[in-house]
What does this fold into?
Amino acid sequence: MNIKTLITELKKSKIKISLALIKKAYLFAEFAHQGQKRASNEPYIKHSLNVAFILVKLGMDEETIVAGLLHDILEDTKITSSQLEKEFGKKTASLVEGVTKISNLKYSNKEETNIENLRKMLLATSKDFRVIIIKLADRLHNMRTLEYLPKEDQIRIAKETQEIYAPLAYRLGISSIKAELEDLSFKYLNPKEYEKILRGILTTRKHREMVLFELKDELEKELKKHNIDARLQYRVKNIYSIYKKIHERNYELENIRDLIALRVITKTIRECYEVLGIVHQLWKPIEGGVRDYIAVPKSNMYQSIHSNVITNHGLFLEVQIRTEEMHKLAESGIAAHWKYKGLESDEKFEKRLEWVKEIVNSEDKSEQLLETLKIELFGDEIFVFTPKGKVIEIPIKSTPVDFAYHLHSDIGDRCVGAKVNGNFVPLNYELKNGDVIEIITQKNHKPSRDWLKFVKTSKARQKIKHYIRLTEKIPVQRFNNKYDRLSKFKSILEIKDMKSVAIKFAHCCNPMPKDKIIALISNSNITTVHKTDCSILKTKKGRKAQASWIQDFEASISINVRAEDRLGLLADLMKIFSNSGINVEKANAHLLNNKVAECNFELKPKNLDNLSRIIDNLKNVFGVKKVSIIK
Ligand code: MN
It folds into this structure.
């Protein structure tokens, strides 16, 4: 690899780039790294050139390729970022800075440290996604030259690659890099298995290629007959994914059905479906073997139709059908974005990378974050269906609430129940491959804090938290101590001859506005207000005094509600207040035990009738056991 090779490749690509700038960056980097050598004993600049070359292959833009040439300058030489900025501009300098920050995160044996590192990495990435693409190119070349490092370093770097960089490449849809990173790390982490599978593939290769060649020929002829202009490729799965299949499903190498795949690349989407029809006429499709990622793209933007068929020789084969554009996207993922769109923002693109921002902005404690990250990044996905048969790809262990939020945040917010395969299930039910899920929604229903205990996807978690933050804008305050109640009750109650230090409503009969009442004043001058017909009253000692309600009062009242805890309880209670046209000044809620929730509201009713209606309505809310005035 030298500068000439890089320039030849640049000319071949259609990337808009100034060759003078590339040469300048090359000379600058060569000078800065002068005298430095790689473990392979090659001059350091070879590494920079290789990284830039990988970025050219991915079709990245000028700034990224220049930053690729300069990517190790801040870390390994005396050049400062202000010097870089002066020579190559602010954006290129900040790309190099971003890569340097990531490189400084050291992989450790502690899972928490790695998760925190990953979060920092995603943070750098969310500012400019090109940073992670440069880092992946850097890692790919380091993996290709890993043999020169001491064994200890090999294992550590291979592990980090397998656990962090390969899943990241997958999530960003850069399958070419993902597959090579997986195979290279597997080679160092499990050399015996690696060799075994490689040998297995090689010994059957000749035969397989012959068969594939025949099949390709057969399909090509058929496509010509139908006037479809498409190109065909065949491929063998990468070694690590074969290993995973053998290992996870206890298969023999020979039994892996989609070990080989025939790929048809068409000009239009319409042709993709035509090709699917032709393939199914030619070879028999396996039941349930069709996956339409064109209609339902994978979360990493991947689009293609996959169909598993049995050929006339009785051979299992996977046929993948996609357009040229989908093909480029499948190979380079988000990197392809720059190829076509440059840096202009693209809503669809942004949406698909939302998960990075969600993880970065998440307030989760490390434990929860770890769980979410593992599922988002490393976890497998399952396929489930809407009642109309739409396929949804969702992380393993997702619940109906995750599914609802995946469909739409409104559906998530209003979700009250779910049916899976026709049966009602709890909202924390763990979805399985092939489940048909019907979400039951209710107008005005609101998300519950409890959902946070079981949702698995960051989208659901984020949306629920967002809602909770909104509703908790009502200041949550502790209610004052008992003995300042006097002034307030004074405004709604008239008690004859009262010199009490405190007033309270009796628990035994819990008087409500409009009930006939009487006051009982104790020796210690505490006044308790009972209903006149309270049966307990007779047993109580103290002095009785006349009491009555004041119709037009102006004071804040505190109401206490006890109810069976359930989804949407607080929202239903709040609705009563807003329907009565009054504002809640303070609110708080907590669980007394698993089942019973206690909510306190401070509000300013218009008058006694208004208060009375509010209390009656609260009592009618489903699950409410007791409503009392506490202040
Ligand atoms: Mn490097």
